[in-house]
Write a structure and sequence with these properties.
single chain; 380 residues; alpha/beta; Aspartate Aminotransferase, domain 1; Aspartate Aminotransferase, domain 2; seven-stranded mixed β-sheet; 13 helices; 17 strands; binds pyridoxal-5'-phosphate
């Protein structure tokens, strides 16, 4: 039965997952894709692809944007587009989704893992300079959970050593910092529109940047380098977004304001209640940023009644499927066979042991959030 007794599961007999994909009203989507049955233009940078690129540029407040088949390919191709020499070093963080690290490794570059900060989980900018060598070419930080990195200090370091900065902004859709879209920092930023993200196109993603030459480069990389019926100018991959996904994006985008408002109410309820519990810690967000309320990560500290894994199991017994994002660290994953075990990642390892992401999505009932908080409070 578990430590929370017959608290929830037997009352509701319903499962609550960490997230639930946003979808527009059915009729609205069906109406919007109807023209595709006449045109039969299902992909290859069609009308809706162009419309969504335009609307997202405005929404994200960025000068240039290239839509992609998913967030991972957006990151992998953006790194490729920079043309770094094989084997060069890229400073990044292990406290992220595996995609960040894979995008570096799959470009034949060497990830150099930097520790993160305990207060928000973003890369510890004070530790970056010590990791720079003559082989370093770039920094790939992550706005993890939508928490904004110290973009100013990262840029200062990048300028000093002539490094490129590519942000993994997969969690930061719609986040602003100092009144500007978060994608305006660094040489480029990458967003994910995966079904589980705040904004989705089913699968999808985008790279944003200031330099129009990068748009042309990414266009080649996402479409085989085809530049004419009989002309291929580059060895590109295929990473185009299709028209059905683009229409999904256009429909979902209309509801973003409301979606973020709904998430905000839930996150504020969680934060109000959980911040009073000793042993439960919340991440800090910068004052000058706006949030998208995509995730509600908590840290289960040593003075809490249970450890993180125990709390995870107890919630699960009640039908609450919280997630250990991000555990293990990407640097510790099986595919890397202990190659990065010696990296100094004390804080990242600690966060990975303590973090638990609680359910947040638009239609999650506020009463359920209260139930979850009560469960976490009750055993203290
Ligand atoms: C989701 C995610 C990605 C990859 O995005 P996909 O659209 O799933 O390919 C990359 N980085 C982070 C941090 C993510 O959470």
């Amino acid at each position: 039965m578990g430590i929370f007794g017959e608290y929830y599961v037997n009352m509701m007999n319903e499962k609550i997952f960490v997230t639930r994909s946003s979808m527009p009203p059915y009729e609205e989507y069906i109406e919007a894709v109807k023209p595709l049955w006449d045109s039969r233009l299902l992909t290859n940078m069609g009308k809706y692809h162009a419309e969504l690129e335009q609307e997202l540029k405005e929404y994200l407040d960025v000068p240039e944007l290239s839509l992609m088949v998913n967030g991972h390919m957006a990151l992998e191709l953006t790194i490729q587009a920079m043309g770094f020499p094989e084997g060069a070093e890229v400073i990044t963080t292990p406290f992220t989704f595996i995609s960040t690290t894979h995008a570096i490794v799959r470009n034949d570059l060497k990830p150099v893992f930097c520790d993160v900060k305990p207060e928000d989980g973003t890369i510890d900018e004070a530790k970056i300079e010590d990791l720079i060598t003559e082989h370093t070419v770039a920094i790939v930080p992550v706005h993890v959970y939508g928490n904004v990195c110290n973009v100013e200090e990262i840029q200062r370091i990048a300028d000093k050593y002539s490094l490129k900065v590519i942000y993994d902004a997969a969690h930061a859709f719609g986040v602003t910092y100092k009144g500007k879209g978060i994608g305006n920092w660094g040489d480029a930023s990458v967003f994910s529109f995966h079904a589980t993200k705040v904004f989705n196109t089913i699968e999808g993603g985008a790279a944003v940047f200031g330099d129009h030459r990068l748009y042309e480069k990414l266009y080649n990389l996402k479409n085989f380098g085809i530049r004419g019926e009989e002309l291929v100018t580059e060895v590109g991959a295929n990473a185009k977004m299709n028209e059905f996904c683009a229409v999904m994006g256009l429909c979902n985008l209309k509801y973003m304001g409301r979606a973020i408002e709904q998430r905000k109410v839930l996150c504020e309820e969680y934060e109000k209640r959980l911040s009073c519990i000793s042993g439960i810690r919340l991440f800090k967000t910068k004052l000058e940023m706006s949030r998208n309320y995509g995730y509600l990560p908590i840290l289960v500290e040593d003075n809490y009644f249970l450890n993180r894994n125990e709390l995870y199991e107890e919630l699960k017994k009640q039908g609450i499927y919280a997630r250990k994002y991000f555990y293990p660290l990407t640097s510790d994953q099986a595919c890397f066979k202990n190659k990065y075990r010696d990296a100094d990642l004390k804080c990242a390892r600690e966060l990975a042991e303590k973090v638990l992401v609680l359910p947040v999505y638009e239609e999650l009932h506020k009463g359920r959030v209260e139930n979850i908080c009560e469960m976490i409070e009750k055993i203290v």
